[in-house]
Write a structure and sequence with these properties.
By secondary structure, this protein is an all-alpha fold. It contains 6 helices and 2 strands.
Length: about 210
């Protein structure tokens, strides 16, 4: 019951999907493999619902709006299937796929591209690492919200210093980059400039001569 409530509340899964696909696996040993796309081409947006600051914003995720994103997930699912079919996975780890069908995907052959497309669009979740709603960019970039000093364009004395300034999501968890953005933002506000680290070079005379900034 806890699993069912968690999946439906946290991930907004359909009740029938939870009951038929996930609940039967409760209290069994097993593992879950997540196939993630860290370079999505689809773009969503966040808009104000009204002028009332207490109204929740309107968020459009637009998952798989770009066909390439769906193809990437299908390719990842096929790679996972290939791994689970190896001798070590079968004999040493006793890896076996769930036997219960994914609701709505029963008509597709198991492990086919069509099945994985259906699976991806039926069981897709966010990893809660959104970025890019206040993009940093050059002066001539009309989509840039903040400049390289993290100042909001057109508004004085206001900076944005978090993951929202990333023009694109990095190929990693956003935790570490967000921390570094915070550190850099703190240095900018304090007026602190660090001297760049000189990389190792074979001939010191040919190295760039960094000066104190």
């Amino acid at each position: 019951m806890i699993l069912k409530i968690s999946l439906e509340y946290i991930y907004d899964f359909d009740s029938e999907l939870t009951k038929r696909y996930f609940v039967p696996q409760s209290y069994k040993d097993g593992m879950v493999v997540f196939v993630g796309n860290y370079r999505p081409l689809s773009r969503g947006d966040v808009r104000l619902a009204s002028r009332n600051v207490e109204d929740e914003p309107i968020i459009h995720h637009r998952y798989y709006e770009n066909e390439q994103d769906l193809k990437a997930i299908v390719k990842g699912c096929k790679m996972v299937t290939q791994i689970t079919e190896t001798k070590i996975a079968r004999e040493k780890l006793d890896v076996r796929p769930f036997l219960n069908a994914v609701p709505g995907c029963e008509k597709y052959p198991s492990a086919s591209d069509a099945f994985f497309r259906c699976l991806a669009q039926t069981i897709t979740v966010t990893s809660y690492h959104p970025v890019g709603t206040c993009k940093m960019g050059a002066q001539d970039d009309l989509m840039a919200v903040v400049d390289p000093q993290l100042r909001v364009r057109g508004i004085s004395n206001l900076r944005v210093i978090d993951a929202s300034i990333m023009p694109e999501i990095p190929t990693c968890n956003t935790n570490a980059p967000a921390i570094m953005i915070g550190e850099k933002g703190a240095d900018i506000i304090r007026g602190r400039k660090l001297k760049p680290l000189l990389p190792p070079v074979a001939n010191p005379k040919s190295a760039l001569k960094y000066i104190d900034l």
